[in-house]
């Protein structure tokens, strides 16, 4: 299980090796993604709180990256964080995500990216539920729910 100290270490030193990588040009991503997906994944945008697809969705399945299809989060790890965005306590695997310090907007946060395609997903915070205390605050536009 991932702990906050692991997240800090990954951001500070180096992230786990991805299972493989997907690289595309800006033009290719624009063709593949909707404008809203492109804004979040490739321009580090943030979608509006609450008015997004998966905020209140608790359907079972696997959340995959909307950019490359890598499996990122299981619906069992999704919980109601009252933040306005889909929130998860743990990722599916340690190698699926990468963590980077983000000092934008005068905030010290840790950005979460898809480790396969480098798409921006959201941020991770140390105020999640026990036992591991992580809250992955993820944009719906960066995800696609695949029902099992
Ligand atoms: Zn991806």
Describe this structure in words.
It is an enzyme of class 1 (oxidoreductase). GO terms for molecular function: peptide-methionine (R)-S-oxide reductase activity. This is peptide-methionine (R)-S-oxide reductase. It catalyses: L-methionyl-[protein] + [thioredoxin]-disulfide + H2O = L-methionyl-(R)-S-oxide-[protein] + [thioredoxin]-dithiol. This protein has 148 residues and is an alpha+beta fold. The protein has a single domain (4-146), classed as Metal Binding Protein, Guanine Nucleotide Exchange Factor, Chain A (Beta Complex). The protein contains three helices and nine strands, in the order αααβββββββββ. The radius of gyration is 14 Å and the shape is globular. Zinc ion is lined by residues 65, 67-68, 70, 114, 116-117, 119.
Keywords:
three-stranded antiparallel beta sheet; Met_Sox_Rdtase_MsrB; Metal Binding Protein, Guanine Nucleotide Exchange Factor, Chain A; EC 1.8.4.12; 148 residues; 3 helices; binds zinc ion; six-stranded antiparallel beta sheet; single chain; alpha+beta; oxidoreductase; peptide-methionine (R)-S-oxide reductase activity
